[in-house]
Task: structure prediction
Amino acid sequence: MSAPTASPSPAPAKTRRVNVRTPEVMERVQAEVETHYRSVLVENLRKAGGVLTVGHTTIRLARDFGFCYGVERAIDLAYAARRVFADRKVYLLGEIIHNPEVNRQLQEMGIISIPISEHEAKLSTLDPDDVVIVPAFGAETRLMNIISERGCSVVDTTCGDVMSVWKRVRGYAKQGFTSIIHGKAEHEETRATSSRAMGDAGDGHFLVVLTLDDVDYVCDYIRKGGNREEFLQRFGKSVSKGFDPDKHLTRVGVANQTTMLKSETEELQRRVQKAVEDRDGAEVAKQNFQVFDTICGATQERQDSLFDMLRKPLDVLLVVGGYNSSNTTHLVEIGEKELPTFFIRTAECLKSFSDIVHFDLHLKAEKTSYSNKLAGNDPVVVGVTAGASCPNNLVEDTIIRVFELRGTPKAEVMAEAERVAAPVE
Ligand code: SF4
Result:
């Protein structure tokens, strides 16, 4: 597991946060955002209960999918920053969200993305005139400190749900608890959260775990100790600087990246709690274990909607989103347990039904597959969902592409969607 570099870092110095959300700016921004990402087809399908049948093809849309409130806000703020600081250089720390199409759009607007590997070096060269957008995932405290030192203006789009996790892990550090964070150590959000887990004084500790195998290993160590060197080798840099499993697993608090699979996070919480109880006894364990579920509402709604959709018969599932999007990845994991599931970035991945380019979570690479179900002439029901960072226009393109490949032209699909969405007289 690769991971964040964890040098002690106190809470960020005062940053020059600017409010770009004035009513005049936001009115124009929202109109611009709509032109880029709106979909009339998706709106009509939602009005019609999420189902559209034309010929032998039925599309079933999940109840909740696509842009969440945090992503909508982040995009609005980035567009507003560009507008308000039209004559200044506007930088973005990495990606605003994990969707290549949205990031491409921001680049076309002149917003300069600083790749993660160059954050520190590039930020150190900025001037007070420069503007830095912090993405929805937030940023590590050491980066916020550099931005403050350089005197740049900051447009902070960090989602409120992410900040709730920070509040929790800071609290753990204050009480002398190590944060066990369920997440991907290299993910921007988890890096930002890990830096807060070191507390305001920078002397707290964290351990990031991803799989249930990791959790079982940690639980064994909590119960009966183990080989310290092996532990540190296994978790590499997924731990805070100076982390010692013999000392820092005594009092633990569990938190999670906001976009994890809920069932897995709950299992992790149960296993760690049980390990602490086995070691300390139920009464003492209450002093040494804390938990706080920090999966965000939007992630949960998208997962629950997919479970609901899977209760009805479906032949194939298409999940649309960025391949590095954590919440989208979990939708794919849920789907592929039940039926043939294709994780596609855009409609362009559907070159034909014998040439579907999709991301394989297990290979961690794109591959090309064939779908018998979609290619034939038999009636087919296709489920469609999308991660929290996927705009509606990409979902629309995907639906249209499925119909077109099955012989139904776009105009016919749009007309039928409008018809089924119309109120019954
Ligand atoms: S997925 Fe959740 S945490 Fe992330 S931006 Fe959306 S609402 Fe916020």
Remarks:
- The chain has three domains: 16-24+70-159, 48-68+298-421, 161-295.
- The pocket of iron/sulfur cluster is lined by residues 68-71, 136, 159, 161-162, 258-259, 296, 298-299, 327, 388 (CB under 6 Å).
- Residues 1-12 have pLDDT under 50 and may be disordered.
- The chain is about 45% helix and 15% strand.
